[in-house]
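Q: What does the assembly look like in three dimensions?
Context provided by user:
Components: three
Sequences:
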Amino acid sequence: MNQPLIIEMRTIAQKLLAARTVGTIIGWEKGSRWYLTPPAFIHNEDQVDRLYFDRFAVNNLAKYLLDYRDSDEKVAVFVKGCDSRGIIRLIQDNQVKKENIIVIGLPCAGMYDRAKVEDPENPHDLPLLNKCLECRYPNPVYADRLVGEVSVSSESGRPTGTYSGFATAQSVGSRADRRFEAVDTLNNLPSGQKALLWQTYAERCLRCYACRNICPACNCAGCIFDSDRKQWTTKAALQSANSFFLVTRAMHVAERCVECGECERVCPAGIPVMSLNRLVSKEINRLCGAYDAGIELKSSFPLSHFNLAVKVGS
Amino acid sequence: MANSLDPAATADDVKRINALLPVKAKILRITQETPDVKLFSISTLDEQLPFPVSPGQLVMLSVFGMGEAIFAASAGENCLEVAVKRVGILTEALHEAKAGQTMGIRGPYGNGFSLDIFQGRNLLFIAGGIGLAPVRSLIKHVLNHRKDFGHLQLIGGFRSPKDLVFKRELTEIWPVSEDFDVAITVDKAEEDWRGHVGYVPDLVKKLKPQLDETACILCGPPVMLKNTFNVLEELAFSPENIYTTLEMRMKCGIGQCGRCNIGSCYVCLDGPVFSLAQLRALPDEY
Amino acid sequence: MKTLNKISLNSALEIFASYAPLYVPAGNETFSGFVRYSTGLEVRLDKNTKLGPKSLLFPRVENLYSYSNHGKDTEISPVPKEIEPTIIFGVRSCDLQAIVCLDDVFLSQTSRGGINDYNYRIRRGNAIIVALGCLEADGDCFCQSMGVDPSEHEQADLQLFDLGESFGVESHTAKGLNLSRLLENSGLLAEKKVAKPRPASFALTVDAQGITHKLQKMFDHSLWDELGAKCLNCGVCTYVCPACHCFDISVCAKDGCNGSTIRHWDSCMFSQYTEMAGGHNPRPGKKEKVRQRFLHKLRYFPERYGKFLCTGCGRCVALCPVNLDITEVIRRVKEAEIDG
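A: Here is the predicted structure of the complete assembly.
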């Protein structure tokens, strides 16, 4: 991996902590397997050497900013392109105070698909995650600081920064134009088959809420699915209630999903959660014109802003 | 094995077959204790005691279609008495209920107060708000077996004078009972209130209850409990002589659903009555 | 030892299936679990399933009773439980050890009280467990470290050993013997002189010796703050765990008057798990929830029932979205400095 980049990350973290600019740095560290680079929380200078970044640093760290929602503590957070879109969404949803966070942008060469690991003990080559092949914003769209010579860009495009050539060679973004293919395939199934397929998925859903809890767009302080007290729905994993959950979740992240794909990655039941999100965003594009969530701080929202030109049901 | 229940099945039969099934019961009487507390007298459909409970034990009440919740129960003549404060959806449904309505009841759960330990001793009762309910069931037992116990003292705290639960017992019956001192404080007084004003721990500190041969029984909200423990220890009560009943969220009542544990103890099985000495040996998580 | 040629596996499964409802491991890389066998179903025996057999004994959702309100009166009727045997085929030692943990909870084999759970008792009493010994560890397996023998489990009714071309078949109980005889009567079993195969040493090991005792002094340790920061409080670990058994009881209303009271899985990770009606929550934050999960597995359950509530199946290790790895937690506990 790119050692100079990691050193640069550690240096910037060390400086921010030394100057007490922030109390916590949210980054990644090497995990318990060669194919795992989970989130890390760094609170003092002698911990900065834990910081690490490689092609397994897949977790979108934006979500953790919600833990600081009610505090005035300043935190710094490292972001890839997709993570930075999550941060913009959180700021737009008034969940995070811009002045309380320092966003450090990273160059991203795409993340590996750990589900394809064949030898848990010895490192080997892996394909990229679909979401990275389909990625249109590999560069941070928003950052206060940058490392690895990456540039901030709210234009969709090619990766920049230290290993842009490598990322391009690895085909980051090569399937960007075909990102709706999976949902189209599902959508074009004969209706009986389609219903049956989603019934199977709904039956499998454990209601573990991993998809919800890892999603930066799922940022409600309370969720009706946690509560049986109001009896909107049952907490029990009944197929009908699970369908209600899956659809409600997808509709609730409409216009907010930043395509980080974390929901689908963490689903223990193998439900293609991103396809549901994509289905909704495709409809938004069709009805309201092309729209990508979390690209610019000052954007207008297709669903929450009234526009006479939009003809729903057409 | 029976798959359906005989309508004449007793609580014991039901429990033997399926501990999570409630028996049908009915609301015999409802007494409005305070603006947000009602006392429910609950009997079997033919107006008998659903099952015996000892002071400090718990019962699970169901409002069919709304759910279940756990409460401290006290045995009345032909009924169980349960004081319910309106705090959530289920208690709200209970407060809407009318006398005569069918409901479900299962139990009793938990250890209750160990009555032998208190035998022959002076008893200091300290209760905050609805926490008086389990304490009252013990007081009732003590007054029914008055010669087995020594001096009695009750220190009760409530939000305001209108929040006094079991008001007749508190103000008319217990104060004139043999060798029974009753002191009441309210957080916030109203014009005609002539009693103490302030929090329970402060009143305990002020009254300096006697220690000799005394066991203290304490029940109330977690903040009150923790602060009063400290005051009692300052007064040199030993943790072995302080008893409390705890409240936790519970679903099964039989040590299986997992949520009411403090360390490896289940409050529904090993509690809800603990001595402070026992609690000190457990994680501080209640 | 009696042996069953692997070529005859399908015939054996057909015989089992005609004797009683049969559940077998099936699925693919994306999703696998125990499913009802029917002719033609492809059984997956190369590695353990993503979801264990827990839900066959302790379903994700089950009706306890139905109610019907008429005015002030209510009819309640318990949901009848059919008493029919069920065969669970291909259970690994880790998952069987987890069933032993569930037995402790639901059949209350403790001097500290508790009551048999009716539904569990019926299902467990009627389950016939055909266990399959493991010879090799999957990437996240560490059952040996948790005191489980991957190659066989004494609580199996019928134990299978992988002998390469065939399965060794050993019955431990009358129920197992019954199944074994069914195969024998169909001429599917042969008698061979073979030794029980021993499993390879597992790559992933962790030393769990003495951690229950050590954890007794670690309730306030900073480790929990650190782990809690990373945890998302989703329920993946608890729902894929073969031994986690916490549940909720709630109402599933059909309409204003009718419905049922159901029992369903719940997780100590969830926000309302311990929250009381008045709002007080003894385990309010991520730290307290994470601590409860690990202390329950490694300290509280051993204190109460004398065994770990973790059997080393590795599912939570494989599926945790943030790599909160229980073997790492055990290692950290071992290394932790504590006062006193």
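Follow-up: Chain B has a mean pLDDT of 91.
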